[in-house]
């Protein structure tokens, strides 16, 4: 893969895969990227990288890249190559026609968590200023929207509390529903380094991940709970802390609301939350829960890291708040080595949320019903913004199936592969009159598109990404956009064609506007980023060099708020027909729906999704390693090869959704988090059988 000879020039930029946000030197010969080398000055990675990032230039220069806009009258017709002017004019005319016929709310957009802050900001501005509604969402809807809800309600800010370096000071690390060695490898390596230095590890996960016992690391406690019972287990840990006198009374008295704490203490002390009372439900021995709770509560510094195994549940937001309760009750907030740390999936999903790509929030997490916030944007944009929240993505799709939502602009998301309950998603896309996909490749969603707008890869654009530790880093253009335009230019031209006057001449102007209108970003500029290399928000007058640790002296909301986290069992439970619970996740070599990693050299290390099944469950069904198995949920069915493995507990099966042929998400139900509609990807009751003829 590495070309002979010395590169001629190099450009420093940020990885476009996961939320770690590693810094890389892109080495080029002429206009050809030949190597990505991790940059030692990058604060998030300090010279390290993983196999995904190292090989990322492979997809950026892949021959499958689309180099010209494409248009067709219906999804049965072949694509027709057109110029940018014709494509943009066609989209604008279609969207105007739809709004004239079906109403202003009949169109919307999905912003990409893989695009830059500036590009996402423009998409939500396009929707609010040119579409005239709030129908904009981003992939956090299906991953970390419960994090935004839960941390805002308890702490006052919709983001993780720490920087990555904080883990170097942790004495006890609790990892809940996350697999950082595969999904966030560079941070996973840092976490393992701390474990080798003596930190204790608690893992809460139905699966035996690499952290539980991998090379050089071993969890002191692995609470292998039944999928769907996070809240019951975390409440049980809190019960131990409260009833065994392990609360940090001084922290709670100084930093938290007295009323909400008193209510929570009485609630959680109820015997129904005792580990023994929920043992049968969670499947975790009460003594293990007691011991883990004591370990977490008695550490000098205890840190919690969590992932989608927390959020992608019917009680995702409740689980986030149960975690926040634990951290506040034990005083593990506001200094190095502690905190509540969501490991965000996509490179810029934190940024996409910060930038207001939500139907209910403007940039900076201000609700659209807030007249002061709305007035600031209205004055700057010269429009009136609706005070009513728009449609969330699942509601846009449901409205489309009902014939009321007719047009969508999808920037860099592959809804036809990534969403749950896929058959209904496909039906919704088919029912729309104008589906516009902006992406690097003709992805699965492009099958349903009427217009395809070829986007630019991270090597072809300028801007910024914000990683999981709120770090804003520069993305720098190494080569010109293959199809001629960067993504922000496409959105700007669409806004102009829809007669909204958008006229930025450089990305820095967009960042300046973001800084002017978004309190957390008020001190951010390209000049500052060049000087500091990167900066963590909030970056403002009080913190001109950013904020590595939040909530140090007081919580952003003032006092920390305890929330009562009643456990409500999911309706996805095994029954006589569907005896197993499916949970889904990721593997190291692949990323999300695989559109990028399936087109890079490292992709060959994982060439198909497989179904992990415990030997006991496999034997009971006559299934051997490598057999094709049929998996059926109440939503649909698919087939995968079996991998017989003790990494899953009996009664649980596991797979990934990196390959379209697997149709994994056909199985995932329409169940979702009560607060945010984040889908319940992590719990699906399934029947698994050896496929006929296998
Ligand atoms: Fe890219 Fe994440 Fe790997 Fe870093 S850890 S190189 S950001 S995929």
Automatic annotation (TrEMBL):
Residues 8-64 form the 4Fe-4S Mo/W bis-MGD-type domain. Coiled coil: none annotated. One of its GO terms (cellular component) is membrane. Keywords: 2Fe-2S, 4Fe-4S, Iron, Iron-sulfur, Metal-binding, Oxidoreductase, Repeat. GO terms for molecular function: 2 iron, 2 sulfur cluster binding; 4 iron, 4 sulfur cluster binding; formate dehydrogenase (NAD+) activity; metal ion binding; molybdopterin cofactor binding; NADH dehydrogenase activity. GO terms for biological process: formate metabolic process; respiratory electron transport chain. Belongs to the complex I 75 kDa subunit family. In the C-terminal section; belongs to the prokaryotic molybdopterin-containing oxidoreductase family. This is Formate dehydrogenase alpha subunit. It comes from Tepidiphilus thermophilus.
């Amino acid at each position: 893969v590495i070309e002979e000879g010395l590169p001629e020039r190099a450009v420093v930029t940020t990885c476009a895969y996961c939320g770690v946000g590693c810094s890389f030197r892109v080495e080029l010969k002429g206009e050809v990227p030949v190597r990505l080398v991790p940059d030692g000055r990058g604060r998030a990675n300090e010279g390290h990288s993983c196999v995904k990032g190292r090989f990322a230039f492979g997809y950026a220069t892949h021959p499958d890249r689309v180099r010209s806009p494409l248009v067709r009258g219906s999804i049965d017709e072949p694509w027709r190559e057109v110029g940018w002017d014709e494509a943009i004019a066609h989209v604008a005319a279609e969207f105007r026609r739809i709004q004239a016929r079906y109403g202003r709310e009949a169109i919307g957009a999905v912003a990409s968590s893989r695009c830059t802050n500036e590009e996402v900001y423009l998409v939500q501005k396009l929707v609010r200023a040119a579409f005239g509604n709030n129908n904009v969402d981003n992939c956090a809807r299906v991953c970390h929207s419960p994090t935004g809800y839960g941390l805002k309600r308890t702490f006052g800010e919709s983001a993780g509390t720490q920087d990555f370096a904080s883990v170097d000071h942790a004495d006890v690390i609790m990892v809940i529903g996350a697999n950082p060695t595969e999904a966030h490898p560079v941070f996973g390596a840092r976490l393992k380094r701390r474990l080798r230095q003596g930190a204790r590890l608690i893992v809460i996960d139905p699966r035996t991940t690499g952290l539980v016992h991998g090379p050089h690391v071993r969890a002191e406690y692995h609470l292998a709970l039944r999928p769907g019972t996070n809240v019951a287990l975390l409440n049980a840990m809190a019960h131990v802390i409260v009833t065994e006198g392990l609360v940090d009374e001084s922290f709670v008295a100084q930093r938290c609301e007295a009323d909400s704490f008193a209510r929570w203490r009485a609630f959680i002390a109820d015997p129904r939350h005792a580990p023994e009372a929920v043992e049968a439900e969670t499947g975790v021995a009460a003594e293990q829960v007691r011991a883990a709770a004591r370990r977490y509560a008695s550490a000098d510094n205890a840190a919690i890291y969590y992932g989608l195994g927390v959020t992608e549940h019917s009680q995702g937001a409740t689980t986030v708040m149960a975690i926040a309760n634990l951290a506040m009750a034990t005083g593990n907030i506001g200094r190095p080595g502690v905190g509540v740390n969501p490991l965000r999936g996509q490179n810029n999903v934190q940024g996409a949320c910060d930038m207001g790509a939500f139907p209910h929030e403007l940039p900076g997490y201000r609700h659209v019903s807030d007249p002061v916030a709305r007035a600031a944007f209205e004055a700057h944009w010269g429009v009136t913004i609706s005070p009513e929240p728009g449609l969330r993505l699942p509601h846009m799709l449901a409205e489309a199936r009902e014939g009321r939502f007719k047009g969508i602009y999808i920037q860099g998301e592959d809804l036809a592969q990534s969403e749950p309950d896929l058959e209904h998603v496909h039906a919704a896309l088919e029912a729309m009159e104008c589906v516009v996909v902006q992406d690097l490749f003709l992805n699965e969603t492009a099958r349903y598109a009427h217009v395809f707008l070829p986007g630019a890869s991270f090597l072809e654009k300028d801007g910024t990404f914000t990683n999981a530790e709120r770090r804003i880093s520069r993305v720098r253009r190494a080569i010109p956009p293959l199809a001629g335009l960067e993504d922000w230019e496409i959105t700007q031209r669409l806004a102009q064609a829809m007669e909204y006057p958008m006229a930025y001449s450089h990305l820095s102007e967009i960042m300046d506007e973001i800084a002017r209108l978004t309190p957390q970003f008020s001190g951010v500029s390209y000049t500052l980023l060049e000087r500091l290399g990167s900066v963590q928000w909030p970056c403002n007058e009080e913190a001109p060099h950013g904020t590595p640790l939040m909530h140090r002296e007081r919580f952003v909301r003032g006092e920390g708020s305890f929330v009562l986290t009643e456990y409500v069992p999911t309706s996805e439970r095994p029954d006589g027909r569907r005896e197993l619970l499916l949970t889904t996740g990721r593997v190291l070599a692949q990323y999300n729906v695989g559109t990028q990693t399936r087109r890079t050299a490292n992709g060959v290390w994982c060439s198909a999704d497989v179904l992990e099944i415990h030997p006991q469950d496999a034997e009971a069904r006559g299934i051997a390693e490598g057999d094709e198995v049929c998996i059926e949920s109440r939503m649909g069915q698919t087939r995968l090869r079996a991998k017989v493995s003790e990494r899953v507990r009996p009664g649980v099966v596991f797979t990934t959704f990196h390959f379209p042929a697997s149709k994994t998400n056909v199985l995932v139900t329409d169940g979702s988090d009560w607060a945010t509609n984040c889908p319940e990807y992590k719990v699906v009751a399934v029947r698994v059988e050896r496929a006929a003829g296998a």
